[in-house]
Amino acid sequence: MTYLLTDTGLAALSAFVDPDTLFAFDLDGTLAPIAADPTEIRVAPAVAAALAALRERAAVAIITGRSRQDAQRHLGMTPQYLVGNHGAEGLPGWERYAEEFRRQGGDWAGQLMRALPAGQHPGIVVENKGMSVSVHYRAARQRPEARSLVLKAIGQLVPPPRVVGGKYVENLLPEEAPDKGTALLELMNRAGCAKGLFVGDDMTDEDVFRLDWEQLFTVRVGAGRNSRARYFLRDQEEILALLRLINEALTHINH
Ligand SMILES: [Mg+2]
């Protein structure tokens, strides 16, 4: 991984971006800092403004683990594409599966609430996001024990979900649901974009990073030893610098 905000990284960025690039971003930990209470995340007004400016110049997509409705509340701008539930919700072309994914999510959430009754396991929260389920244990006092309990309960689910770990959270997705990598490629196709730039920070974003395509420019927020992203930013605050650099590069191309 190369640090993006270096001469080498910036030269690669400006050589890559053009108005036919799809600019796609994760939300939590990427456009907004992680908050102890996930309902409290906030996209900084300057970031929302830079995204809105980018949207005027090129196609912008947000691909998030949140539900679309929840994500839209926090964004402060409206992107051309908004895909929720780690790729499973709102992807053009996948509408006919929506009901099945939703039914599956609800069913797993019910099984988990019976296996991990609220009140008996403080700090473990089962969140039904519609087409995926997230089991959070960030607030648990003993996180390793909480994680074991959560994984044990997940191991008993019928049918078994696809499980993608995150920062103090396990995400459950229908086996057939599109992941973020599939979502990005589908959106590029829809938008008529030959290239895609994607920024993310978490395990589910690796589904994009591992595509490892010439036509993809991948950036991880935070250097990760096991990440397949090509570039990294040191922390979430640097997203604003990246957005401004992209806008600047596109302005030079357009004029
Ligand atoms: Mg994230």
Explain the overall architecture.
The protein has helices at residues 7-16, 45-57, 68-75, 98-115, 143-155, 180-191, 206-209, 239-254, and strands at 2-3, 21-25, 59-63, 81-83, 125-128, 133-136, 162-166, 169-173, 195-200, 216-221, 231-233. It has a 7-stranded parallel β-sheet with strand order 1-11-10-9-2-3-4, sandwiched between helices. It has a 4-stranded antiparallel β-sheet with strand order 5-6-8-7. Helix 2 packs parallel to helix 8 (239-254). The protein contains 8 helices and 11 strands. The chain is α/β, with parallel strands linked by helices and 255 residues long. It has 2 domains: 2-94 and 178-254, HAD superfamily/HAD-like (Rossmann fold, 3-Layer(aba) Sandwich); 97-173, Trehalose-6-phosphate phosphatase related protein, domain 2 (Alpha-Beta Plaits), CATH 3.30.70.1020. It binds magnesium ion. Magnesium ion is lined by residues 26, 28-30, 200-202.
Summarize the structure.
By secondary structure, this protein is α/β, with parallel strands linked by helices.
For the structure shown, list the relevant keywords.
single chain, 255 residues, alpha/beta, Rossmann fold, Alpha-Beta Plaits, seven-stranded parallel beta sheet, four-stranded antiparallel beta sheet, 8 helices, 11 strands, 37% helix, binds magnesium ion
> What are the low-pLDDT stretches, counting only 5+ consecutive residues below 50?
none
CATH second-level architecture of the largest domain: 3-Layer(aba) Sandwich
The CATH homologous superfamily of the largest domain is called HAD superfamily/HAD-like
The shape, in one word, is globular
Question: What order do the strands of the largest sheet run in, or round the barrel if closed?
Answer: 1-11-10-9-2-3-4
Count of β-strands: 11
Spatial extent as radius of gyration: 18 Å
Largest sheet: 7 strands, parallel
CATH class identity of the largest domain: Alpha Beta
